[in-house]
Amino acid sequence: MGDQKDTRWQGTEPERFPHRLLGRVRAHEVDRQGIVHNAVYLYWLENARVEYFRALGLPIERQTFITKHRFVVAHIEIDYRLAALFDDEYEVLTRIASVGRSSLSFEQLVRRLPDRELLAAARTVMVHLNPATHRPERIQDAYRVLIRQYEGEQVLIADG
Hints:
Strand content: 25-35%
Number of strands: 6
CATH architecture: Roll
Largest sheet: 6 strands, mixed
CATH topology: Thiol Ester Dehydrase, Chain A
């Protein structure tokens, strides 16, 4: 990369993220090098997205993502910036940047606490599926309203 500036994560200022989930690195999350294994971040990000849905006001129970709110990951990209170590405290900041016809585009930041150093940045596209057909289905207006109320005017919502 040399001296080129990475512009992929511009516009992801922490204050634009309405949802925050706190955590602490557990012993089983670190590898033989003593750092958090890269795959562990996927679990942290998923947990934060579930809690984001809960913060929207969706009832979360065992069957929620099977029969009611069927969202699946279609794409994810992560840039790892710094290594997290055992017992580090961290926060996962989450927001929905845009809502398409049948997709949600999440942006997430993982920051070490208390210094708020960026550990990782991620973008995830989730697709809403019909529980019976398993085919993409338009995201209901009720979701769009909840997301707009939670995110404010910064989220781009397509009519779809």
